[in-house]
Write a structure and sequence with these properties.
Elements: H1 2-20, E1 38-39, E2 42-46, H2 68-80, H3 82-103, E3 108-115, E4 118-119, E5 131-132, E6 135-143, H4 150-216, H5 222-256, H6 292-312, E7 318-329, E8 341-350, H7 358-424, H8 430-464, H9 472-475
Antiparallel strand pairs: 1-2, 3-6, 4-5, 6-7, 7-8
């Protein structure tokens, strides 16, 4: 027994000595960009360094728009969206891999039995051609002491992978929520635009009836009548194109909810007026810490770092301890007799000395993977700042454009009223009236489109900030 423990101790001592002589290398990935002092598009926003906070609750951010239909759509998307279901399954996979990696650190115990019918070697046989029935039964145990933290780093990498998948799930949820809101607002503003075009078609038809009477009375020639008919047909075609666009958006919304487009419908709301949220000045940079895509990239980089450590430790020896206990007999009939009991313990050390550069290649590969992950993390951080700047700029400029479009619509509407009055009195040509009506329609449609763009930018900013700005107070302490 003492000799066994001496042998085991010698194996462990050799492992430590060989590990100390193993070749390793060092590597430092590219650093993440330092945050600027303030948003370019929001001078009141001051940046501070902060830890990832992607686990903080974002809450039902879409409720800032105060729309009951949108609230219902978001709830249905959370339950039925297929992208969310796939992301949840990937989280389950990553957690299972973590469980498997953690199991490698624990002793492995099994039970087994074996029975054979073999020819007894002549030197051991009592007579020529003797046949024996050797058999074994018992427990086996093995354990790999993690002296060099190879298994521990592999488990840590799997843990970081699982957290990265969880962050990607949160990012998928945020993306789906934002897409549902944006498609919904497109539909609502498209309904408003369709109503405008339909109203214009009705106005053109009135003009057509008037022109038809004047043509019959000989007050205008056929050219004026043809122009009005062309305008009616052209505007009707525009209305039909908007109908098609609405159908496509409605189908897209159904897929986002995980529902069949054939069974989904969203009723129009005449004169829909949503509540466009007011973005507070001086948004804190800590809000960006909630972005799950940034957190996922950071965790992926950290996992690559752990795997780099595992690759370096391939130079260290592998050590395993084994033990067995049970029964062994040359005859099955005598297997479970007390005299047939048997046991064994052992220690195994292995270290490849010449591998043709395989371990060096693995280290270089892990270095490259770490570098790729670090560059992806840096790119994700830069994209996060760009997204916020883009949406802040959009909201600022769209607000100014909305005011300008409002003034243009007022002027165009007055020009149409004056042209219509003068046309009915025979003071201007029918062409001038059509031009005025066409300009007013274009202005009103442009105003609706700008308003729709404001909603898209507001949702885009919420997504860029990781889920709204309402939690800024809770993030300030990070």
């Amino acid at each position: 027994m003492k000799s066994i423990f001496k042998t085991t101790g010698l194996v462990l001592a050799m492992a430590a000595a060989l590990g100390g002589c193993a070749s390793t290398s060092s590597f430092t990935p590219i650093a993440a960009p330092a945050p600027p002092q303030a948003f370019k598009e929001d001078s009141g926003a001051r940046f501070v360094q902060s830890a990832p906070a992607d686990n903080l609750s974002r809450g039902p951010w879409w409720q800032v728009f105060q729309d009951a239909v949108l609230n219902d759509l978001e709830t249905r998307a959370a339950a039925g969206n297929t992208s969310l279901q796939a992301a949840a399954a990937r989280v389950t996979q990553a957690r299972a891999l973590l469980q498997a990696a953690s199991a490698e650190l624990l002793p492995q115990v099994g039970v087994g039995t074996n029975a054979q019918r073999v020819t007894v070697p002549p030197a051991l046989a009592s007579h020529p051609g003797e046949v024996g029935n050797p058999a074994t039964a018992g427990l086996t145990a093995s354990w790999e002491p993690d002296f060099f933290n190879k298994l521990g780093q592999a488990r840590d990498a799997a843990h970081l992978d699982a957290r990265s998948r969880e962050a990607l799930f949160e990012n998928t949820r945020l993306v789906v929520q934002a897409e549902v809101a944006q498609v919904y607002f497109k539909l609502r503003h498209l309904d408003t635009e369709r109503a405008l075009v339909r109203q214009t078609v009705a106005a053109y038809q009135d003009t057509l009836r008037l022109t038809q009477r004047r043509f019959e009375d000989g007050d205008v020639d056929e050219l004026d009548l043809a122009r009005v008919r062309a305008e009616v047909a052209s505007t009707t075609a525009q209305a039909l194109a908007l109908d098609l666009e609405r159908s496509v958006l409605e189908h897209a919304l159904a897929v986002l909810l995980g529902e069949l487009p054939s069974h989904f419908g969203l009723a129009t709301i005449d004169g829909w007026q949503g509540a466009l949220p007011i973005v507070p000045a001086g948004l804190p940079s800590t809000l960006l810490a909630r972005r799950p895509d940034v957190a996922a990239a950071q965790l992926a980089m950290q996992a690559a770092e752990q795997r780099f450590g595992v690759a370096r430790k391939a130079w260290f020896p592998d050590v395993s301890l084994t033990a067995s206990g049970g029964y062994a007999s040359t005859n099955v009939d005598e297997l479970f007799k007390w005299s047939a009991r048997a046991w064994g313990v052992g220690a195994l050390l292995s270290l490849p000395l010449i591998d043709g550069g395989r371990r060096d290649a693995a280290i270089k590969q892990s270095e490259a993977q770490w570098d790729v992950a670090a560059a992806a993390y840096r790119d994700q951080v830069l994209a996060a700042f760009r997204d916020v700047e883009d949406q802040l700029a959009s909201l600022r400029l769209l607000a100014d454009r909305c005011d300008a479009e409002g003034q243009a619509v007022d002027a165009a509407a007055r020009a149409t009223r004056l042209s219509d009055l003068r046309y009915r009195e025979g003071l201007v040509s029918q062409l001038e009236l059509l031009d005025a009506q066409r300009s007013e329609l274009a202005g009103r449609r442009a105003a609706v489109q700008v308003r729709a763009a404001q909603y898209q930018a507001a949702v885009g900013l919420i997504r860029a900030l990781g889920g709204g700005w309402a939690a800024s107070s809770s993030l300030a302490a990070l």
